[in-house]
Design brief:
The complex is a heterodimer of chains A (346) and B (127). Chain A has 346 residues and is α+β, with helices and mostly antiparallel strands. Chain A folds into two domains: 5-110, Phosphorylase Kinase, domain 1; 119-342, Aminoglycoside 3'-phosphotransferase, Chain: A, domain 2. Chain A has ten helices and nine strands. In chain A, helix 4 (131-147) runs antiparallel to helix 7 (247-253), helix 5 (167-183) packs parallel to helix 9 and helix 9 runs antiparallel to helix 10. Chain B folds into two domains: 5-47; 50-119, no CATH class. Chain B is an all-alpha fold. The chains are: A alpha+beta (346), B mainly alpha (127). At the A-B interface, strand 1, helix 6, helix 9 and helix 10 of A face helix 1, helix 2, helix 4 and helix 5 of B.
């Protein structure tokens, strides 16, 4: 049975490819994992003169309400900026910010097929021999992101560029506002005494200015890249929280204790000092341990802000998908424990 | 847990009915049912202890603040509302202790915060 989105996607793409004929969209299926965007894969077929063509593509569409509220243009441009660089990403094709075509804004991109993303599979035993390779690639690629010049990539056109000494405050203000907004909710507002204590500590103990302004992926962790059986990484995904800021923010997000996946290792892969060494070698930047600690605690607060936002999207009825509940139920308390651990209170 | 277990179970019931329709694409049904099964597992894990955990915590918070824990209703929703009220007061008490530099009081508050995460600990917790 044809998916209801198929003819609508085909009509949209046909308008974007006026020189071809017989545009068809086949095998549309929604794929899991998209808590901030609805993600679908499909086959696009068309004819160029006498020649039949086909390509596997991905559609990322805004849901009615999201775990995080971000601009899809920022995500689209972040992908596009790194395409063809040392940071592997899928090719972006079309961005649509109006609701007319598919009810909500969306973009269409190349599908990088034949690879895996799930941490559960990576840590199930079959990949044990290549985990060091995954780790080497993971933190080397993150170093490349940190090293990149945002202005040269054209990203200062679409992302605000904070002063080096304002990066931390901008991010902390943003995520503290999530908690403030939550407490003003009419239904189910849940106080967060542990996250609030962490925020007070962060404000009282600010980090030094960023050593450079970098592209910050915003959710760079095991689970958000595509790997193969040799341990190579073929695509960095989920750039919806990308922004410009302190490169230590990205490094520290991957050290959030919940992303150890219960394995006692950074990202479930290698020791934290080993990961830092890989990142420093690739980025040419220095990781100040005290500054890193600040960003680790900040990222625990940010994580809690995301899980609180997920719960809120469900409670308010904007998005009643089970993917909105699972992070809240699974991670809210674990994130509190992570905050306590980073603060030396667990 | 937040969102509340009854609200999630109600949504799961509707989701199961929707997925009984053979027209739902197989991949979407698989995703929906797998996530639903994981949620049902978590709900089952917390169900028996939920009221006791809230009552114990509310009494601990009331003793620490000090305050009185309202136990006029043993409905989970009522105990949770009281827990939210007391935890909001705990934030205020924590700020006051920080400003006063009251080390003993701070230790007691941190101990309760740590205990609160142990009461909520799930078998699948990552930390």
């Amino acid at each position: 049975m044809e998916h209801p989105l198929a003819p609508r996607i085909a009509a949209y793409v046909a308008g974007k490819m006026p020189d071809v004929t017989d545009v068809a969209v086949l095998d549309v299926e929604r794929i899991s994992g998209g808590a901030s965007r609805e993600t679908y894969r499909f086959r696009l077929s068309w004819r160029e003169g006498a020649q039949a063509r086909e390509r596997r593509l991905i559609l990322r569409r805004d849901p009615p309400a999201s775990l995080i509220d971000t601009e899809r243009r920022v995500e689209f441009e972040a992908y596009r900026a790194f395409h063809g660089s040392a940071v592997p990403v899928p090719e972006m094709l079309w961005l649509e910010e109006a609701d007319d075509a598919l009810d909500h804004p969306f973009f269409i991109a190349e599908e990088l097929s034949g690879y895996q993303a799930a941490p559960q599979l990576l840590f199930a035993g079959g990949y044990d021999a290549v985990l060091p390779r995954v780790a080497e690639r993971k933190w080397t690629i993150l170093g490349e992101i940190a090293k990149a010049d945002p202005a040269a990539l054209g990203l200062t056109q679409v992302m605000p560029a904070p002063a080096l000494d304002a990066c931390w405050r901008r991010e902390l203000d943003h995520w503290e506002a999530i908690f403030d907004k939550e407490m003003s909710a009419k239904e189910g507002a849940e106080p967060q005494p542990i996250a609030r204590a962490a925020i007070r500590w962060l404000r009282a103990n600010p980090p030094p200015p960023a050593q450079k302004l970098s592209v910050v992926h915003g959710d760079y962790r095991t689970g958000n890249f595509l790997y193969d059986e040799a341990g190579d990484i073929h695509g960095v995904l989920d750039w919806e929280m990308a922004h410009l800021g302190d490169p230590l923010e990205d490094l520290a997000w991957g050290f959030n204790p919940i992303w150890r996946f219960g394995r006692g290792l950074a990202g479930g892969l290698i020791s934290k000092p080993a990961a830092v060494a890989l990142w420093e070698a690739a980025s040419g930047l220095h990781c100040d341990p005290k500054a890193l600690h600040w960003w680790e605690l900040f990222n625990c607060v940010k994580g809690q802000g995301i899980w609180v936002g997920s719960a809120r999207a469900f409670i308010d009825g904007g998005n009643r998908e089970p993917i909105m509940v699972y992070p809240a139920w699974w991670l809210l308390n674990a994130q509190d424990r992570a905050i306590l651990e980073v603060m030396g209170r667990l | 847990m937040t969102p509340s277990v009854p609200s999630v179970l109600g949504e799961m019931a509707q989701l199961l009915v929707r997925n009984a329709d053979p027209a739902v694409p197989a991949a979407e049904r698989t995703t929906a049912l797998t996530l639903s099964a994981m949620l049902l597992g978590l709900a089952a894990e917390v169900w028996d202890d939920a009221a006791e955990r809230l009552a114990v915590e509310n009494r601990a918070l009331a003793a620490l603040l000090p305050d009185t824990a309202d136990e006029s209703s043993l409905k989970l929703s009522a105990l949770k509302a009281e827990n939210d009220r007391l935890r909001a007061r705990l934030i205020e008490a924590h700020i006051a202790a920080e400003q006063a530099g009251d080390a003993a009081r701070l230790d007691a508050i941190w101990a309760e915060l740590k205990a609160s995460t142990e009461r909520r600990l799930l078998s699948v917790s990552l930390v």
